[in-house]
Amino acid sequence: MNEQVKFFPNSEEFKTPLGAVKAGEPVKLTLKFNRPSNPSEVFLVLTKDGESDVYYPMSFVSVDHEYTMEYNVSVTVTTRGLYFYHFIINTEDKQYRIGCGDDLNALLGKGHDWQLSVYEEIYKAPEFLKGGLIYQIMPDRFYDGGARLKTKDYARYREDWYGLPEYRPDSEGKIRNEDFFGGNLRGIIKKLGYLKGLGVTCIYLNPIFEAHSNHKYDTANYRKVDSDFGTADDLKELIKKADKKGIKIMLDGVFSHTGDDSIYFNKYGRYDSLGAYKSVHSPYYKWYSFKDYPDSYDCWWNIDILPQVRECEPSYLEYMCGEDGIIRYWTEMGIGGWRLDVADELPDCFIDRAVHAAKAVNPDCLVLGEVWEDASNKISYSQRRRYLFGGQLDSVTNYPFKEDILNFVRSADAKKLADTVNVIINNYPQFVVNNLMNLLDTHDTARIISVLGDSGDTSTRDKRANAEISDGEHALKLVKLAATLQYTLPGVPCLYYGDEAGLEGFEDPFNRRCYPWKRENKNYLRMYKKLGAMRTREKGVFADGKYVPVAAADGVFAFSRKNEHGEITVIVNRGDKPYATGIKEGYTELVSLKSFGGIVAPFDAVIIKKTADTVFPEKKKK
Q1: Which of 173, 203, 408, 450 reaches 20 to 30 Å from 586, CA-CA?
Q2: Could you tell me which residue, 2 or 201, shows the higher pLDDT?
Q3: Active site residue 341
Q4: Would the pTM of this model clear 0.90, i.e. be above it?
């Protein structure tokens, strides 16, 4: 029966509006199927997550070409949340249940049902990020702007900027992450012109608050900029000067744990404060969960230097989200947004308050959560999350795109990538899609070049530490395919510092080498600058242009983005044969700005814009 049915929720022919719907907004669904089914009744079966099925009779509309019967129904859902639906067709002697295909089953979260996300617009979605470009920086590894203070007596201050970060454990078997290369906020200020040249509109900074590691995820004091990075005045200057260039600053909010070496815990007595480790009378004692006081306590992923906090403890909520809390303090300084680290480990009570605190200061402040799966139906700690249904996240990190872009580039599986893109667009509200952080690598993953290139034997950590790709030209081709998709699919690309310079590296800390100033790979830099310039020039289309699938077979993945600003088509050929598009004229290649010839070579990608009404000027003779 399923082979005789037509329903595709990402097409307005079958569902309007597309994607998630606003509570109280009618959604129209159309089902088409072959005449021999001879139905007596057709129903939409809609189920709110955890509740009973509700049947909605569908109305006969027409017979198309005497082969397909068409039924539709309009439903208005007034309560936000997660819903699932399928169709029932009754004939005189049979009943057919029509749901999504098995290929999408695992992605959609409830077998053989399509998903309908219903949201409320409690906060207006920020506009500044749409159509832009995020650039992720680990401050210690980006650029040394001078005046290194070297304030940590235990630190190893490196003078070899291009050296390999320390990765071997010490005599106690621990990797301390206490080697510092000297990157700082003044360095970022000095490179704002460079970042503007890449097309950057938002800088995402890994944590900058006082901490004792080089990565800063072990916060020691949320109210201070780490002294090795600079001062609050340096941050203010960065915000001001970046803003003049049309660039917003997004801070990393690490709120699920603190450092053990902090004013809050104070395990080693470094601070004058009465930390939770020192006394049960500490004002911070209730923040933590002790099993056997003071040495046994809940830690983030059992890492003892990262004591877990109780985010719903009233005193912690007030400290972070209150009128004089941390989130308001830094938001008032003028930052453009927050990335909530490990958002799936933050309970709703905290996310609700954190978002409210940020929006109360600046309604256009972006709050983006780190979520590695489909955030619309995510379950964490046995609880269904409501990140995207209103009042919480503006958007999320888009790891689902990342995984299947890389899978496509490695294996030419265009269908899996197409399914993933369709699922995310179907499941997420449009404002979330417009602000998705589309990444290919981060400080938590291996770098894109190392993932796609051939680095030889990487079987041991020592070998991975010094690994280099062997065929740079082939790796560049693969990265170009991935980057083209990253820069053009719905959402906002996030470029991890140094990728544009050809920086390699496997897991932490090999993926955290310093930016190779004066040693950049010019081929990568040229490619990323072209992609950035193209995206800047066509921001109107990429901001919210509708996604329209074009092809997803035989190693070819193609789609269009369309709105009132124009129509752009992206064709990526990972196959082993030239791909004939059938386009003869009326399009120009946006990166090379030449007329498109209609053929896409193997291992190549093109980005073309419809210009049928444009007359291109003749080249001037020299």
Answers
A1: 408
A2: 201
A3: yes
A4: yes
